[in-house]
Every structure is written in C-alpha cells, then in structure tokens.
Amino acid sequence: MIGTVYDVTIRDESIRLGQFLKLANLIESGAEAKEVIADGLVTVNGEVETRRGRQLAIGDVVEIGGMGARVAAE
User: What is the pTM of this model?
Assistant: First the structure.
C-alpha cells in the first residue's frame, strides 16, 4: 500500500522509468535503478515493471518501498 504520492514534474511528454526513479529521488543511482527494477521491486500504476526503459507518461504513478511519485507536467 502506498503512503503519500507526490508529483514530480518532467520537461517532456514522457520519461524512462530508470531516469524518473533518479529524478524523483526514489533511488541513488542508475546502477541501483537497474537492480531494483530487475528484482521486481518497482510498480507502475500498480503493476510490477521490470523494464528500465519503460516510457512513463503524465499521470503514471511509480512506487518503490512504499513511496510513490506521480509523473506531472511542468
């Protein structure tokens, strides 16, 4: 169950999952992104996502370890 979900604005219309995790400060590095995604610890809109290059769009909600972030427009 997710606690608080906060909005993280992006400049473009989409962003890759690995990049978004770093932008949202949900992880420390690209290497960590690769690990947590491969281990099935990240969900997008409530479903486990194992593709680091998954394109996220405005409104998508990413969760890891009970923390959630929503992709938002500038």
Answer: 0.92
